[in-house]
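Listing S7. Sequence submitted for prediction.
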Amino acid sequence: MDDESQDPVVVPHVELSAEVLRGVVESFVLREGTEYGAREFSLEQKVAQVIRQLTVGEAQIIFDPTSNTVDVVTDGTAIWRR
């Protein structure tokens, strides 16, 4: 593989198994700095909220092949579209 960076790729959440999708979403919601406002939510509630956002198109899963990382981005920060 060469040293050139590659563009991030949108990963449709429906193409992931339920187990992998949950792992990606849990990783996202457990990161420090993920803010849900003044009210506390359980891990299950946070996961369900993010999966709902993915389902309705308010969020996307992005894979960055350069850093070999996955992230969930909201509609406002999703700059890569299918």
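Caption to Listing S7: primary sequence and predicted structure tokens for the chain studied. Residues 78-82 have pLDDT under 50 and may be disordered. The first helix runs from residue 18 to 30.
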